[in-house]
Amino acid sequence: MTTSVVSIVYVNDAPAAARFYGDLLGMSPSFETPGYITFDLGPGADLALWSGQFEDLSPDVPRTGEVCLAVGGGPDEVDAIFKQWRSRGVTILREPDDAGFGLTFLAADPDGNRIRVAPRG
Fold first, then answer.
1. Which of 33, 50, 75, 97 is most buried per CB count within 10 Å?
2. Gene3D superfamilies in the record, alphabetically (predicted)?
């Protein structure tokens, strides 16, 4: 049996969210429909953006889940990504700090979904 883990992020506008995530990830979607778009993150892992499941998501509603982008370059890479995202106007929820497992920061997509950048460990 082939198993893949798909992390689903609920968004208001899947194509707009795909442009946002595609820009952050530096990749194009691997599958697209008007309301469901996925990115192939590597063997067994996909990120899906799904609209139409919830009406009018608001960035003001607290989110408890996160998409975590684990990077292999250590604190210098985390800091470089932070500076790049901040310069692009990405909403930063928490600036880089050491969370015990390494340097990490927290951002949000336009729908308020949380995106953490942390070291691969």
1. 50
2. 3.30.720.110, 3.30.720.120
